[in-house]
Amino acid sequence: MSLATIMRELARGLAVSGGVVLTALTILTVTSITGRALIWAGLSPVPGDFEMVEAGVAFAIFSFLPWCQFVRGHASVDIFTNFLSDGANRVIDLVAEFLMTVFIVIVAWRLWYGMLDKIRYNETTFILQFPVWWAYAACMVAAAIGAVISLYLLFEQARATLGGKPLSSRNGGGVH
Description:
It is a single chain. The chain contains 5 helices and no strands. The chain has helices spanning 3-37, 49-70, 78-81, 86-120, 133-163. Helix 2 (49-70) packs parallel to helix 5 (133-163) and helix 4 packs antiparallel against helix 5.
C-alpha cells in the first residue's frame, strides 16, 4: 500500500468518523427538541444536549478538514488564476498548501496546550459534569492527524511544483 493511499484512507476514515458523530448529534438534537415539544406528554429534553453538541461539532469540524484538504475542496478564486501560467498556478498552490499546513499545525499545537490547561484545572461541563479536556483531546487528535496529512500534501505539492508537473487531482472530483 502506497503512502498516498494510506494518507487518503486516513483522511477519509477521519471524515467518516466525523460524519458518524454529526449524525448521532442530529438524532440527539431531534430527540431533545421532541422532548421539549412533548413535555405535556411526559417526555423531556435530553439533559446536557448543548454540551454534547458543542463538543461533537468541534470534533466533526476537525475531522472534515483533512479530507477537504486532501481532495482540494477548499475554496479558490479561479477567476484571477485562470489567466496565469501553469507554473504560476503551481506556485500559488504550493503557497496555499504551505499556509494551510502552518494553520493546522498551529491549531493542533494550541489544542494540545488548551487540553493540558483543562486537565490541570479539572474543568467540567455545567450539566453533565464531564471533563472538558475530553473534547479538546478528540479535537487535538483530529487536528494532529490533519497536520500529518497536511505535511504530506505539502511535500507532494512541492515535489510537483519543483518538478514542473501539475499535481493530479487527488480524488478526480475535488473543487479547484
